[in-house]
Amino acid sequence: MTTSEEETITYATAADLVQALRANEPQAYAALIEGYADRLYATAYAILNNPADAEEVVQETLITVYRHIGEFRGEAKLSTWLYRIATNKALALLRSHKAARAETSLEELGEQYGGELPLGGTAPSAEEALERAERWACIREGLEAMSPTLRVVWVLAEVEGLSMREIAEAEGLSLSTVKVRLHRARRFLVDYIARRREAASTEEDDR
Amino acid sequence: MNEEHLTFERIRAYLTGALSAGQRSAVEKHLAFCASCRQAVEAQREIEAGREAAQSVAMSPEARLRLYERLNALRSEAGDAPIPIPRHLIAQVKAKAEATAQAAAHVARTTGSAAREIGTGGAAVAAQAARGAAKVGKKAARTVKAAAQSAIEMGEETVKTAADLKAIAVDETAATLRKAKEHPVDLAATPIRLAAKGVKAGGRMAEGAAKNAYAATKGGIKVAAGTASTMGTALVEGTKTGITAAKHAPRLVKAAKKMADGLAEGVRQIAEAKPEEAEGEDEP
Q1: B54 and chain A in contact, CB less than 8 A
Q2: What's the complex ipTM?
Q3: Domains of chain B: which residue ranges?
Q4: Per-residue b or e along A102-123, where b marks 16 or more CB atoms closer than 10 Å to that residue's CB
Q5: A14-206 fold
Q6: Which of A3, A29, A139 has the CB atom closest to B47's CB atom?
Q7: What is the pLDDT of residue A116?
Q8: Smallest Cβ distance to A120: which of B50, B56, B74?
Q9: Which of A39, A118, A50 is nearest to A86 (CA)?
Q10: For residue A140, which residues of chain B lie inside 8 Å, CB to CB?
């Protein structure tokens, strides 16, 4: 049986879910997907800026859970572990792309991805989707210009709302390193966008 | 001390309303004369909006379904029981597929009627050219033949385009519907493929229509020019053909536009597909 007649089972706590995953209960994986896949996808998407890559990261992350749930130590939060796997996969993918696309310019990449945001599960209206895409376009350029190590910290903090301590745990960094990186990432983004705005307004004045 | 630039922590606090009234007014005083800090505030506002957009990103139903299928393929290799796929997810993907099929049918209908219009227009020009040819006589026969050739080419192009479109629409629609019943996962790629084919067909159609309009007009002008040197009736007939061609040109353009509208409507239907819309209303 591949499809269920009932809705997905929910687990009272993450620890219950981990236990069911360890027992390799199929239902537990459905709960894992329904509960975490969107968050992991949003994380990967913000880091990679490409729906196909983000999808691959989510798939690989859940495959890793399936293969290595036995190695997961209970002292870390399940979500932290998932974020760690996903961000590692995303960074690895970014590195492999960088090697493969050394010749491709940023403009070409922009065209390739079209600046489109993938539609969510609830299929927003065309207007909503467009509005979202425009808002996203404002910062994606800045994020792409940022170094990947800063970007990951920024995404976990600003998109996923992780605390600095959680980020430190997920990324295997010291708390002070996370603080420094987050500060630098935020600065970088503000400076980048402010500079772009200034350039745009000077251009307008010139006309 | 308004000379020092605002730190971005201060800007964030200002935007989130975390400042006291006094701090707030100090920030505003500074912003009043510091253009660079005003830019920084606006940049921070943009970041805030972009952050919200990034948070609202979610997997498409198709991507989610592929995730289940990929994990289940691995589980089945290992002899593990499959993960149950939530019914609402399958319903969602099916609904989208059905909407795609409906949109394809809509496109097929619209392009079909547009092709008919173009065909009628071409036939009218050809008939007029033939009538003209009969009256003009031998001397102008060659030029009229050219006009007739244009009309024939136009008809052929129309038939070819219409046949292509019909084949694409029918094949794709049938395949989409079949897959919707058999295996929802394969559907993920179908809407994109279909949309791409639809747009390509639309482009070809519009190109064909433009070519036809051009050929018809050219034919008309050739007849007019060729017969000018012969006799009065020839001139009149040639001009009539030209007029008929010109008269049909806007209709061809309109037909092409109708088809483009059909495509747009189809794409809209796909984009807005929701499960509840799938059950029910058939198009008239």
Answers
A1: yes
A2: 0.83
A3: 8-55, 87-278
A4: eeeeeeeeeeebeeebbbbbeb
A5: Rna Polymerase Sigma Factor; Chain: A (1.10.1740)
A6: A139
A7: 44
A8: B56
A9: A39
A10: 50
